Amino acid sequence: MLAYILRRLLLVIPTLFGIMVLNFFIVQAAPGGPVEQMIAQIEGTAVGATNRFSGGSGGEMMKRGGDSNSQSGTGSSAYRGARGLPPELIKRIEKMYGFDKPVGERFLLMMKDYAVFDFGESFFRDRRVVDLVLDKMPVSLSLGLWTTLLIYFVSIPLGIRKAVRDGSTFDLWTSTVLIVLNAIPGFLFAVLLVLVFAGGSYFQWFPLRGLYSDNWSSLDLLHKVGDYFWHVALPIVAMTIGGFASLAFLTKNSFVEELGKQYVLTARAKGLDEKRVLYGHVFRNAMLIVIAGFPSAFISVLFTGSLLIEVIFSLDGIGLLGFESALNRDYPVMFGTLYFFGMIGLVMGIVGDIAYTVVDPRIDFEARG
């Protein structure tokens, strides 16, 4: 198993490199890059935008550029919206964002920095990418971890019970409830929770902002834990409400399939009680397909499934950071988080394989060659 894990870890490097190559050049081909974003800021709010440049006043530089343009003509530019701006200003913007270098050289320099986990600074936030991610991480970890655990802890026992009582009244009405819950969008249910329980129209039972109260630091440990769960209760409920159906049905179908196999009939014929058959023989075989989906489910909930929930409940997490970075074309944040979380996703795939062997020691990945 150790040799297999080492091979998988080595494969992370070319896989991650391929992910970065593909996304880098797709993003570079898209219009509206950071240079064009800055040009739009200059034309909309010239003082605020040009104050970012070092050396001299931005207003004076634009005035000098305007005088130069009035003498040499308007000229043309490769950037949309740059017509009429002095070429010297465009070059300074390009140099500030690193766009004075060829695209291939920019990519290689970026990957060289990422290899030592140097993700640079945000173009528009004046902060290191690592600091931004670490600031937002508690929100995303809170939502992702508790949501995933809650979904698994409810769906797996429910799916097993549905399999054991397949076709019964319990199976039918729980299936109906799960289908109805799955049909409700999470963000819509979040709005309903806000209206009913967070002071929207009826009750003011839960807070609507942040992970903890303003006086959190002065609370004792027990009250800190209580305050934390008081704040995350509604967002977690909103994110989990539609997540039970797929996993519960997957667990049920997997167990139903295993219960019909010959080894189960043999175990029952030997006189083993139903619990021993179910949890001693069927469980580890039926749970393999469920475990296979855990890494992708965790990554999906953690980084991509919480954007609207974060907006509705005023939580500043990774989802909102990624969305804003994409809108602003903040390349260091976009590519830095992509690299970091892409690596986490690949490592979680290896963790899923290890979980396979924990559930069923008969699985030998090394024998696959």
Give an account of the 3D structure.
The chain has helices spanning 2-29, 34-44, 46-50, 58-72, 87-97, 103-115, 129-164, 169-183, 186-197, 221-240, 244-259, 262-269, 274-292, 294-303, 307-312, 318-328, 331-359. The longest helix is centred in the middle third of the chain and has 36 residues, at 129-164. It has 369 residues and is mainly alpha-helical. It has 17 helices and no strands. Helix 7 packs across helix 10 (221-240), helix 7 (129-164) runs parallel beside helix 17 (331-359) and helix 14 packs antiparallel against helix 17. The chain folds into two domains: 32-102, no CATH class; 130-368, MetI-like fold.
Q: Characteristics of this structure?
A:
369 residues; globular; MetI-like fold; mainly alpha; 0% strand
List the helices and strands and how they pair.
Elements: H1 2-29, H2 34-44, H3 46-50, H4 58-72, H5 87-97, H6 103-115, H7 129-164, H8 169-183, H9 186-197, H10 221-240, H11 244-259, H12 262-269, H13 274-292, H14 294-303, H15 307-312, H16 318-328, H17 331-359
Helix pairs in contact: 1-17, 2-5, 7-10, 7-11, 7-14, 7-17, 8-11, 9-10, 11-13, 12-13, 13-17, 14-17, 16-17
Question: What's this, in brief?
Answer:
This protein is 72% helix and 0% strand.
